[in-house]
């Protein structure tokens, strides 16, 4: 298979939450394949920028609080102005709140749904409008979760958001596939990130999780790079509405 299928040279990619963890690794992988990056978030992604520039690409930081979906149009416009267009959108930014369902607060529900689901939808909408208006083939990649398939415990709003994101991935694929826009998702398994720090610090939970992962380890952020490049590139032109699990075999168990 030709490496040109995975070449992202000349592409502009928006990656939310690219300052750390999975988002940073995805941004660096896309840059390694040739894309320029618009990193969206509240924190300056200095370390990610250094790695992107080391790959010979540029990174533009778009400061935004993704608890508000009203910024979606501005984010896409800013990327178009700085990178020449939006060819790839990675909806990665997310937050998580933990509490028993009987104690879960409305504030924690709203914050997680706003960041993980509402903003992801309206960013995809704004990116799709740009892609359709300019006649460019586009790739939208949503970062789902094992909890897009399973219920989990003590993360009611996160489970609701990630289950909803899986459904929206399929809906958007149904509407936009024939218009040259691929919408797919990546469902990471249990990765060593800030969001899983509480789990990894709990000896019992960490032991139980590792016992179920056939690969025998927590995922590393860079483990997502290949799937992200595949779904962002022409190699996935006939892939629509799919959720790619990158989970060390978790779902197979």
Write the layout of secondary structure elements.
Blueprint: E1 12-16, H1 21-32, E2 36-41, H2 46-54, E3 59-63, H3 72-83, E4 88-91, H4 106-134, E5 138-143, H5 156-176, E6 181-188, H6 197-200, H7 203-212, H8 225-232, E7 243-246
Parallel strand pairs: 1-2, 1-4, 2-3, 4-5, 5-6, 6-7
Helix pairs in contact: 1-2, 1-8, 3-4, 4-5
User: Mean pLDDT, nearest integer?
Assistant: 95
Separation, N- and C-terminal Cα atoms: 31 Å
Identify the overall geometry.
globular
Question: Can you say what the CATH homologous superfamily is?
Answer: NAD(P)-binding Rossmann-like Domain
CATH topology: Rossmann fold
Unreliable stretches covering 5 or more consecutive residues = none
Total strands: the figure is: 7
Count up the domains.
Answer: 1
Structural class of the helices, strands and pairings? alpha/beta
Q: Order of strands across the biggest sheet?
A: 3-2-1-4-5-6-7
Could you describe the 3D structure shown?
With 253 residues, the protein is α/β, with parallel strands linked by helices. The protein has a single domain (3-246), classed as Rossmann fold (3-Layer(aba) Sandwich). The chain is 42% helix and 15% strand. Strands 3-2-1-4-5-6-7 form a seven-stranded parallel sheet, sandwiched between helices. The longest helix is centred in the middle third of the chain and has 29 residues, at 106-134. The chain is globular. The two termini are 31 Å apart.
């Amino acid at each position: 298979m030709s490496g040109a299928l995975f070449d992202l040279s000349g592409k502009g990619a928006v990656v939310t939450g690219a300052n750390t963890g999975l988002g940073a690794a995805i941004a660096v992988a896309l840059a390694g394949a040739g894309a320029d990056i618009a990193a969206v978030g509240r924190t300056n992604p200095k370390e990610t920028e250094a790695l992107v520039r080391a790959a010979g690409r540029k990174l533009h930081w778009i400061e935004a609080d993704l608890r508000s979906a009203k910024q979606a149009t501005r984010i896409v416009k800013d990327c178009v102005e700085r990178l020449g267009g939006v060819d790839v959108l990675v909806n990665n930014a997310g937050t998580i709140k933990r509490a028993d369902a009987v104690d879960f607060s409305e504030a924690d529900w709203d914050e997680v749904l706003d960041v993980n689901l509402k903003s992801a939808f309206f960013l995809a909408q704004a990116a799709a409008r740009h892609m359709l208006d300019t006649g460019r083939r586009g790739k939208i990649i949503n970062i789902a979760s094992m909890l897009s398939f399973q219920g989990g415990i003590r993360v009611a709003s996160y489970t609701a958001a990630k289950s909803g994101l899986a459904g929206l991935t399929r809906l958007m694929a149904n509407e936009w596939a024939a218009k040259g826009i691929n919408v797919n998702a990546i469902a990471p398994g249990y990765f060593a990130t800030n969001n899983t720090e509480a789990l990894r610090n709990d000896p019992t939970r960490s032991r139980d999780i590792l016992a179920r992962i056939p690969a025998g380890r927590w995922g590393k952020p860079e483990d997502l790079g290949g799937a992200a490049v595949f779904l962002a590139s022409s190699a996935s032109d006939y892939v629509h509405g799919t959720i790619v699990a990158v989970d060390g075999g978790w779902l197979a168990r």
